Amino acid sequence: MFPILGLFHSLPCPERPHCKRPNCVFSHRPEITQVPTVHIQVDAPNSAPASTPAPVASSSKAQQSPATIPAKRPISFPLRAAGSSNGTPASEPPSKLRKTGLTKPAAVPTATHTTTGVPILRVNAAQSQVAIPVRQAMLKSLYDHFTVLYENILSRNPTLASEHALRQEDEVYRKSTKLTYRNAVISSIASLKRRPVPDSPSHPSVGTENDVVEREQARKQLESLRLTASHLEPYILSLDVMKRHDYVVEVPSSVGGDRPSEEGSVKTCERCGKPFKVRRREEADECRYHWGRAFSTKSGGEKTRVYSCCSRPADDEGCERGPHVFYERDPADLHLRHPFSFTRLHQPQVSDSNSSESVDTALDIVALDCEMIYTTGGMRVARVSVVDSAGKAIFDELVRMDDGVEVIDFNTRFSGITPEAYATALLPLVAVRKSLDALISSNTIIIGHALENDLKTLRMIHHRCVDTAVMFPHPQGPPYRRALRTIVKEVLGKTIQAGGAAGHSSLEDSVATLDIVRWHVANKTKRARPAG
C-alpha cells in the first residue's frame, strides 16, 4: 500500500456525506462545505476551446447553471493558483515534482587553513568521486610531508607547504579514479621523501610533481641551447642606446684615482637626504631610513605614497637604523675614486705553429653580476661573479677595498656580504680586473641585468653588452626598470633573491640573467635591436 501524501486534504470530498471510503484522500472537515466546481463555457461548434479554467461558482447550489459541472478530480487547483477560489494559501509543489536542471556546476576546490597551517579542502561533496573525509586525510598527509621537505625555507615562506599540498592533491585527484586515488597519493608521498631538501624557494625540488617535471623539462631545453655570438648579435646594445642607459662608453678626461676616499668630507646621505660627515663604519653617525622603495597606493579613496619595506607613509620616520652613506653617479667622480679602463683588446689567433704566441683565452660569451657595499669612497664592488655560456661558474671572488678606502656599511640586505665574509677577501680591484682579462676581451659579449651599474663599479668600459633590463623593458618605459627577480619569475617560474635580510647572491643572479636570455632566444622572439 502506497503512503498517503496528503495532496488533497484541502479539498472537500465530492461524495460527502455519503462517502464510504475508509481512508478518503479528500477532506471531511465540517468548515469545508462547498464542492469545487468548474465553469465550462458552451461555445459554438467552430469556436476555440477556453485556454484557462473559469472562476469557481458561488456557494449556493441553486444558483448553478446547467453548464456548471462538479469537478470530479479538482487536483490541479491548489497546484496552479494561490487559492483565490478555495480560500487556501498558496503552496509550492512537492520537491519531487519540482523541475531541476540536468547539469551541475563544476566543483571548484578551495581551501582554508587552520591555526596549524593544515589546509581544509572545500569541494562539493556531491561532485567528488572520492569521499571528502578520505581526500582531507590524504591532503593532511601530503601537507605533513611537504612541511618536512621544506623545513629550511618555511620560516621565510610559511604558506608554501599548504599551497603545494593542496595543488598536489588536486593533481592526483584529476588523474586518478575512485579506486586508484589512495594509492596515487601514497606514490606522491613516496616521491616527496626521495627529493633533496631545498635550501631556497628556487631549488629544483620545490613544487608539486607537475612543477618539478615541467621545471626539469624547461631546464633541459635551456641547457640544450648553446648560445653563440650569432644568437646574441641582434641584442648587443648600440653606443647610442648605451649612452641613453647611462653606460660609460669613454674614459673620463679627468685624472683617475686621484682621490680614492672622501673620509672627513661632507656629503649628502643617499638614504635620508641629509648632509653628513663621511666617517668609517666604527665612527659613522646613525641614520634612520627606509630600505624599501616608495610607491603610490589608495587608502580610503585617497592616493598616498608608502614604503614597500614597512607600508608606512612616505613622510614617516625611517623603519631601520644604520650609518649615513653616499652614492656617486657622475663618471668623473667615479673616475676620481678609481680609474676607468677599457677591456683588453682581443688577440687574433696566430696561424704560425712555431709562434710562441698563445691562443686568446677570452670567452665568446659570459654573464656577469656584482655585489656592492658602501665605503668612504662611495659605493664599491665587493663581489664579482662570472659564468660561461653554459651557466658554469668560472669566476667568483670577493674584492678587498683599495688602500685608504674604509667600509661604512656592508649593505648585507642587498649585497649578501657580511663582515666575516669580507675579512677573507684578498684581491683588490686592480688584481680582479687582471684576472678577468683572462676571460673577457673586447670581443666578448657580456650579459647582465642593468649591466651599466656592474661595469661602473668594476671601472670597466666595454662595448659588446646584452642587457636584460633593456631586453625586457618596463611597461612605463625608462627610467623605470623591471626587477630581475620579476622577470625570472615570469619567464622561468623560478624564485631568486629570496634570502631576505641575508641578501642576494651575484652568482645566482648571473646564472638567472643568462637563463632568461637563453629563454628569449629559444622562444625565437625576433627583435632587430632592443629599443632604447
UniProtKB/TrEMBL annotation:
For this protein, the record's InterPro entries field holds: REX1-like_exo, REXO1/3/4-like, Ribonucl_H, RNaseH-like_sf, RNaseH_sf
Record key words, sorted: Exonuclease, Hydrolase, Nuclease, Nucleus
Q: What's an example of a GO molecular-function annotation for this chain?
A: exonuclease activity
Q: Which domain of life is it from?
A: Eukaryota
Which GO cellular component terms, listed alphabetically, does the Swiss-Prot or TrEMBL entry include? nucleus
UniProt lists compositionally biased (Low complexity) regions at: 44-62
- For this entry, the protein name equals Ribonuclease H-like protein
Instruction: List the source organism.
Output: Obba rivulosa
Which lineage?
Eukaryota, Fungi, Dikarya, Basidiomycota, Agaricomycotina
